[in-house]
Amino acid sequence: MKCVVVVGDGMADEPIPELGGKTPLEVARTPNLDRMASRGILGLTRTIPAAALSSGDIASLAILGYDPTRYRAGCASFEAAGRGITLGSSDVAFRLNLVTVERRDDGALVMVDFAGGRPTTAEAETLIGDLAAAVAGEGIELHAGHGYRHLLVWRGGEQGMRTIPPYGLLGQPVAAALPTGPGAERIHAVMDRAGAVLRTHPLCEARTARGERAPNAIWLWGQGTRRSLPALRERFGVEGAVVAAADLVRGLGKLAGLAVVDVPGATGQLDTNFRGKAERGLEALDRWDFLFLHVAAPDEGGHLGDPQQKIAAIERIDEDVLGPLLEGLRARGDEWRMMVMADHPTPCGRRTHTADPVPFAVYVSAHETKVTAQKRAYHERDAREQGIFVPEAHTLLERLLRV
């Protein structure tokens, strides 16, 4: 039997006035998701414990069947695993965003872009290389990633620091949100030196001259330490693959014992190769019985506060990911099961993650032959009013695999 889990990152939302009080999921045209909701199982689940801060690593851990209160380690530690960076027991990894800050008339520095004008990966590699030459040493390492998101590793670094995600600071002064706690002064010094380099960097000056926004600072956050996970094969007797552009999810999959599948053109943005993810996912199912497929694009729309971009991403998931996956599973003729869900809401009105419950749908091959269907669709309202509620999302995967 084949089992597939598809995650639309940040896909859930809150009612938006400009959408007539509806959410992007309610407005988007999603025939495949709606078929799953009307003929299968529809519900709400909590991926983030009520007492925890909203974070992508917590939600993704839960969807993969791990109790996040036991296994959380910080986003950066999982991203390091996804990039093949080995952390020692005393090392700390930080997410490094290239960001843009501006000084207001009152002198306060304000976060205006958590993505630093969205430099290309090629531009970012140049910037991170030059930043490394300026700030690395004495245990500090910089590792280039994709676009605006990279990693800093502090070998033998201080643990227990408190940091804040940059996307939650848009339009706000940053001084009070800088890292605090043990080792914060060292991190502040690295951030200050990096800002000085970026402000006069030829690449950034060229972007500004072209009228483009340029990164002029770095923001360090989402820190974590080394983490191991019991493999899914040990817990559930299943082997499989993960298809994702996000290093966080790739790292989690790798630690869970899943094979990491690369997809050409997978960017984590709206321009990602949606159909290529489905095609590579189906190829993986030729070899393994389990597939975890993650699409980051809706989350970007939420962080940008752009409902239309989020709607477009959701529709692409429905048409170019779920459509081909369902066709491929049907063509096999054997029993199969699929679960689709958001990992957490990223409301366009807030531009940050929240811990509210998210809709999920479970659809199995037997549902294909149902003569009648419920009058419901895949979105927050119907999941809340007509579905079931699972308080702990980390129990869902075991149910999917063992029912």
In short:
It contains 15 helices and 13 strands.
Give me the count of strands: 13
Biggest beta sheet summary: 8 strands, mixed
Tally of distinct domains: 2
Largest beta sheet: strand ordering: 9-8-10-1-11-12-2-13
CATH topology description of the largest domain: Alkaline Phosphatase, subunit A
Number of helices: 15
* Secondary-structure class: alpha/beta
Beta-strand content: 15-25%
Oligomer: single chain
Q: Overall 3D geometry?
A: globular
CATH C-level class of the largest domain: Alpha Beta
**Looking at this structure, what is the CATH superfamily of the largest domain?**
Alkaline Phosphatase, subunit A
Query: Percent range for helical residues?
Result: 25-40%
Provide the low-confidence segments as ranges: none
Our measurement of the CA-to-CA distance between the termini, rounded to an integer number of angstroms, reads 12 Å
Give the topology string: H per helix, E per strand.
EHHEHHHEEHEEHHEHEHEHEHHEEHEH
Mean pLDDT: 94
What is the architecture of the largest domain at the second tier of CATH? Answer: 3-Layer(aba) Sandwich
Rg (C-alpha, Å):
21 Å
Characterization of the model:
With about 400 residues, the protein is α/β, with parallel strands linked by helices. The chain folds into 2 domains: about 250 residues, Alkaline Phosphatase, subunit A (3-Layer(aba) Sandwich); about 130 residues, no CATH class. The chain is about 35% helix and about 20% strand. It contains 15 helices and 13 strands. Strands 9-8-10-1-11-12-2-13 form an 8-stranded mixed β-sheet, sandwiched between helices. Strands 3, 4, 5, 6 and 7 form a 5-stranded antiparallel β-sheet that branches. The mean pLDDT is about 95.
